[in-house]
């Protein structure tokens, strides 16, 4: 996917999150392990959100591999340590397709 398409998907994701009571606190946080697309809160829970887009749900979600998820987890730990955070958190996927946007909460290996 091109960077332009990825940026458009992230913009749509941010709008979706705000419309659904999330507060976006940071975007594109980088560590040596990888990148967190969106960091948001909702109901006192920190959400590390990976945005994936594709022509359909299956193509988009398939891009979240165990290796990718492992990098997200490591990067989230860096973020929490850097910001001295001790709160509940979860890893979510936000799937952007031409037809809809869907959040998948608490993705795991």
Describe what you observe in this structure.
There is one protein chain. By secondary structure, this protein is an alpha+beta fold. It has a single domain (3-104), classed as Trna Endonuclease, Chain: A, domain 1 (3-Layer(aba) Sandwich). The protein is 36% helix and 36% strand. The protein has three helices and five strands. It has helices spanning 3-19, 57-61, 66-82; strands at 23-31, 34-42, 45-53, 89-96, 101-104. The chain has a five-stranded mixed sheet with strand order 1-2-3-4-5, with helices on both faces. Strand 2 and strand 3 form a beta hairpin. The mean pLDDT is 92.
Order of helices and strands: HEEEHHEE
Please provide the count of β strands.
5
Say what the CATH topology is: Trna Endonuclease, Chain: A, domain 1
Task: Find the structural class using helix and strand composition.
Answer: alpha+beta
Average pLDDT across residues? 92
How far apart the termini lie comes to 24 Å
Shape: globular
CATH architectural type: 3-Layer(aba) Sandwich
Task: Strand order, main sheet: write it out.
Answer: 1-2-3-4-5
- What level of helicity do the residues show? 25-40%
Number of domains: 1
The CATH class assignment is: Alpha Beta
**Uncertain runs with pLDDT below 50, 5 residues or more?**
none
Rg (CA only): 13 Å
Largest sheet: 5 strands, mixed
Strand content: 35-45%
Count of individual helical segments:
3
């Amino acid at each position: 996917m091109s960077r332009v398409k990825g940026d458009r998907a992230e913009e749509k994701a941010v709008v979706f999150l705000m419309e659904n009571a999330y507060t976006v606190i940071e975007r594109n946080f980088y560590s040596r392990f990888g990148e967190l697309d969106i960091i948001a809160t909702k109901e006192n829970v920190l959400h590390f959100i990976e945005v994936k887009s594709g022509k359909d749900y299956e193509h988009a979600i398939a891009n979240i591999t165990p290796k990718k998820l492992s990098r997200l987890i490591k990067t989230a730990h860096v973020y929490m340590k850097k910001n001295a955070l001790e709160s509940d958190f979860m890893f979510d996927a936000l799937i952007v397709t031409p037809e809809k946007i869907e959040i998948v909460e608490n993705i795991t290996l």
